[in-house]
Amino acid sequence: MFLVHSSQYHQPQQIAPLLLNHKISLSDAKSSDKSYSSGSLVLDKALGTQGYTVTRMVEISGHTGAGKSTLALHAVAACQVSGGTAAFLDAEHALDLSYAMKVGVDTASLIFSQPKTAEQAFSTALVLIQSGLVDIIVIDSIAALLPMNHQNKSLFHDEENALEHSRVLANGFTTIRAALKSSSCTVIFTNQLRQKPNNSGKEAFESVGGRPVLNMMATRIRLKKSYDILRNNSLIGHHCKIKVLKHKDGVEGASVTLPLIFNKGMALTHETLKYCSENGYLKQDSSGAIFVRGRYLGPSINQVVTYLDQHPKLRNSLNRRLLNISSRRF
């Protein structure tokens, strides 16, 4: 893992020379012409662009425990599996790297930073974008991007602090968006929800950050906990309902549901096998052995799930084939 900490550098400009000494080169970063996978087949399909669009900013919002960071980590893992380079700016100072590994992130090649202020986070992201070495940047989270002079102050109950936060975000988003236009990078922000003031409508919550978030994010995804997942009467996870609130380059309004298993992440292999079966890719012989596109993967569905979990490159390859199938057949 390549660490970028305030204790290691005094100015964000110093990051780029350090990156050149890291195990990253321009030839290593494999970018897509149009998008980077979210990690989820059904979400990539729902977006209509086979993932998050290159050169865009994405917001993943939801209440605590909904799965925001997990979904962002799946995008990081998918990027790395495809040969790309990812960075994670942990403004929350809460990322569990052992959990990230379970989700599929290669922490050895992950660029990792824990910025202390909004200004430092945006400066670091800007240098990473301009370096041309990074494909996906995750910033976790917008709510934790506190201005330098507003540390330890509440954004949720003080209108003045919320307005200052919104101003700093607007400046930061504007800078990042301009830099992204000449890059092959995508920036993903996670975000919390707050209760709307004087709310009289059905939706009682909104994203932290106000209009800068609403207006400047090209893609906005909202996560919500759905029904629990039980095994032997023990809670092992929950279904996560994901709605595409905004997507400038594709489809808006679509909703999908993904199972989230505690301490493991989203159950991504199940969706791959489901669509493989529906499109004739998955076959089972008289002994119960499973074949996918003629390749033997295991003696039972459980073993196949385990195999694909352990071989994400194969799963991603299958996902790309399935995404290229026409919507009518999908």
From TrEMBL:
Query: Does the record bear Transmembrane in its keywords?
Result: no
Q: Which GO terms describe its cellular component?
A: cytosol
The superkingdom of the source organism is Bacteria
Q: Where is the RecA family profile domain?
A: 32-193, 186-271
Matching entries from Pfam families are given as: RecA_N
- On whether Nucleotide-binding is a keyword of this UniProt record, the answer is yes
| Example of a GO MF term | ATP-dependent DNA damage sensor activity
- Keywords, in A-Z order: ATP-binding, DNA damage, DNA recombination, DNA repair, DNA-binding, Nucleotide-binding, SOS response
Q: In its UniProt record, which GO terms are filed under biological process?
A: DNA recombination; DNA repair; SOS response
As for family, the record states: Belongs to the RecA family.
Entry protein name: Protein RecA
Q: Which organism is it from?
A: Vibrio vulnificus
